[in-house]
Amino acid sequence: MAVRVVFGIRRRIIAWIASFFEKKNGIGFDLITPICMFLLITVGVLSIRSAQNYHMDTQWKSQIIWAVLGMLLYFGTAFADYRIFLKNGHWIYFFSIVLLLLIFTPIGWRRFGATRWLRVGSIVVQPSEIAKLGTLVMGASILARSKIGKLRDSFQAIGSVLLVFGMPVILVVLQPDLGSSLPFLPIAFALLFVSEVPNKFFISILSVLLFLGSFVAWDAYAYHLFLDHHQLNPQTSIGQFEKISLLPLKDYQRNRIISFVAPDIVDPQGVGISWNLRQSLIAVGSGGMTGKGQGNGTQAKLGYLPQSVATNDFIFSVIAEEYGFIGSMCVLLIYAIMMANGLRIACLARDCFGLLLAVGISVLLLIHVCVNVGMTLGIMPITGIPLPFISYGGSFMVICCLLQGIVQSIYRFRSEY
To answer: Among 156, 181, 222, 271, which one is most buried in terms of CB atoms within 10 A?
Structure first.
């Protein structure tokens, strides 16, 4: 009797799980993205555990908990109609802005010289990650409701989108967290590009960006001359040039820019601001073609690559050391499959809102992967941007899972339009 009950319960559980993957109006469940997510999360947990093997830390266990919560949210979002975000986009955006403003209140938690987190008891949240979701949804909802034509006729929609994206960028930069602010503008331009905004707008924006880039380069050069003239050490004189500069950058950010272009100027011995990058390059190079093997990496475990960055910003160097060039390329291939699948679903979307959301989420994934891997290899400035599904972090993991759940929802409900 007991055996029959057990088998009956098992059949019901299997039938319940199978119902999730049944076709809805002729459309099934897309398995590509969840498989890629599972593989990346597994690699991330193993890499975090390896990086902290000698330190007996339990971040990898926390990462598993966040991953489970994220996957539950993924499936919950996947089986909900994504039009709910169109109807409530303004509330999500408002909520994310309020969280960013709370950073500047007593519950804002300061670490590593920046206030980027909210802490209430043992609960820690990074509002900038939630702001990416709210801003993307709000921007897509505005463009989905707007008529885009000639540049003059599109000014209102363009202005609204830039205002929506500009507000969180300013609040994130003020934390200061320049790295987390980077994905916002590329996402905005991607949404505007897909909306077929006239090319004159992008030419104008490109001209402005070139001017700003030149201004930043001039500011960094002036900073170098200032240090040289006053015979100051860039590591110990942080904050002095900020008082006279017209550009609202912190001196440590200027050091990062110069260390990317000319590291010998700000850190000739390689023991200061360029230490993390040098150790990352050693880890990547020592991995060779096939790597040292799971758990056999040394740069992070022995502390050469500091624990404060080994499990998040520089987690890819841990992967490269242990899995080598082949393993690293496999990880990048999984990301490429996810992004290509996201763009495929964007092309299958039957409405403008679904198209914009899928494109924006794919671009967000692309920016994070390119910048994180690029700074690990020394071909991008160090900005402190995490690697999706792999870097340690609860807020980022949950938001990444939710965003991919939206893409799955777009795939499942596209037949209703």
So the answer is: 181
Torsion of CA 173, 176, 180, 183, to 10 degrees: 20
- Structure pTM? 0.85
In this structure, what are the phi and psi dihedrals at residue 31, rounded to the nearest 5 degrees? -90, -10
Decide: 245 and 221 in contact? Cβ < 8 Å.
Answer: no
- In angstroms, the CA 355 to CA 202 distance is 20
Burial class (CB in 10 A: 0-12, 13-18, 19+), 325: middle
Sequence-distant (6+) residues with CB within 8 A of 208 are none
pLDDT block averages, 10 residues each, the chain of length 417: 51 50 58 94 92 74 92 93 89 93 84 75 83 93 84 80 91 82 90 86 86 85 81 75 78 77 70 80 88 83 78 90 93 95 91 92 94 89 87 90 95 75
CA distance 389 to 33: 12
Q: Looking at residue 242, what DSSP letter applies?
A: G
